Amino acid sequence: MSMDREIDFTRAHLGPEAALTEIAGDASTRRFYRARGKSTTAVLIAHGQPLPPDAPFFSNHRIMESIGVPVPALLARSEADGLVLVEDFGDLTLQLQVGGTASVASAGDLYEQACDLVALLQSRAPGVMREDDFAARNALDRDRFLFELGHFQRHFIAGLRDLHPTGAETAALEVFFEELAGSCDIQARVYCHRDYQSRNLMVVERHLKLIDFQDARMGPYTYDAASLFRDSSLDIDEELTRRGLDRLLAATAAPLGIGNEEFRRDFDVMALQRNIKDLGTFGYMATVRGRREYLAYVPRTIASVRRTMVRDRRWHEAFVPMERYVLSWTPA
User: Fold this and answer.
1) 143 falls within a domain
2) In a domain? residue 58
């Protein structure tokens, strides 16, 4: 595949000696390159298609940058070519920083920063958001949650496990999905990053930086908290989680008039939907995209789903088909 446009664009901004090296892009369909000029580096994001001037990447970048969220500086853009050159935050993600297990001792200060960024997004974004912004016109709502739960059923239960529930079991799962989606949808709606987990938080000199923000939109006030503290890619000890949720309770729930009990219940509901959605993503990546490395995250995610369902009597009826078709999964 020709890289002429990418190279020409990069050299126009970093100098004639600039070179590109492809870097990992997680589950994204976009391609990412480290651009090395004579005296600086940057990251080139190739979207693979033209971008309108008001593309979600640009509008969400404007929102976040204007309220002080540490997103990468936008160095250059070519909407026609779908190319964006941004500041290079390096390769050290929060996931890599903690080495698989996050604790108060190893990462307490970083998770405090992460909680404070969630509060910043929720409190200040509404003041700068425009009516025609992508985030203002799109939401993580009941329909979106039901779509994600259906995606999970297609790509994890049927696709990855090659299992097909009976009519009665399918009906029970549909009732479960409807109640879960509805319970998430009634939560107070705020500005959400949408994928606020350790692989999208970069560590630069012990300070957090935020990437992969192009899908930010309105959604439940616990959504980013659930993404952060029920992260499928690493273990987070209970003390760190307790401290983080206490911090978020004070900074995000209390201003909405929401107390501790309601906040914890809302968090669990949102974490359950988010983790089930993650399982669908992992099944899709493994079976459709051929990226079976994502299956390494499945056992941790299943364990989180199991704990949450056991803790709340609302989900006990759905536990039987979930146990049979989901929670019983073991690595091949």
Assistant:
1) yes
2) no
